[in-house]
# Entry
Amino acid sequence: MSYFNQVQINCSEVSAAIMFDAGINSCLEYLEAVPWSEDEEEKVLSLLCQLELHGSMTEVLQRVLSEPSTSVRTDDIFLKLLSGVLQAKDDKARREMKTLISRLLREDSFDYNSRFDVSKDTLYHLCHRCLCSLVLCLSEAMCMDSSRQDRGVLMAEIAREADNLQWLVDILIDKRMANDFVKLWADQKELAELHSRIPTMYRHEISRITAQLCIAIGRGNILVPKDSRFSLLSTWLDALYEDFRWMRRASRSVDKKLIEEGLGQTILTLSLRQQQVILLNWFHRFLNKGDDYPNIQRAFEVWWRRAFIRQYGDVPDSSNMQITICNYPT
# Structure
């Protein structure tokens, strides 16, 4: 804390103690005008609350206290901020603001005293907007002549919208709000169909969303019913397989091992029959493609042991179990 700010705070305490109103007002005027560091902010707020100066400290507190009506507008503010980032024209600025907003929202999640946070409705509204944009872009790409010069612009827009959706999904996962998105993503049959009909080099960013969800499910950060997990893989697993090579090579931020672990763990949460269908399909594909496909041998091993070695069989029906009480001799 700066020397002069500390002096003014101390003077405020002394002036209040001797009821020297002119001294109090002078100190408050100074504190209202001077910049504060975050440490000084805490000190000023603590002091003013202790002194109970009421009306005379209103000007000072306006810098940090929300007006009563602000809480009503908070979600609108979050919506404007997030929408602004998603629609930003400058890619570098967009990346920087995504990092900043993500960090600030993460701080809010760990601050149990925080009264305001972005709502689930706002995040899902933006997700639906990105999904609609992706469907539109992919539909246009299907109708576009490959020789047209603006094809590259459209493909860049596809990558941009996919990146935006990845960012929103990350926020949903951080805030434990992503359960509904698994079903939403699994239901994107039209998008998955369009995805399969455009070149891999333009579409692979979309498959990273599936990878995100599998990683989160595999870590236990998303808890959804088995039907939702199987539906997710039924809709998007083939696309993830086909795009995996491009995902690895196009971005240094893609962690191959992390995706493989998440995918394997997600598969192993399914019924044994579903595991068998998926893993036998993977086995034959992997033999032909090798490193171009995710290596989920670990999941294959676990399934093998469950199916052929351990063989737990039927779970006993507990409804017919009886409890016998024995009196042991003393």
In short: Residues 226-250 form the longest helix (25 residues). Confidence is low (pLDDT under 50) at residues 317-330. Residues 119-310 form one domain. The chain has 15 helices and no strands.
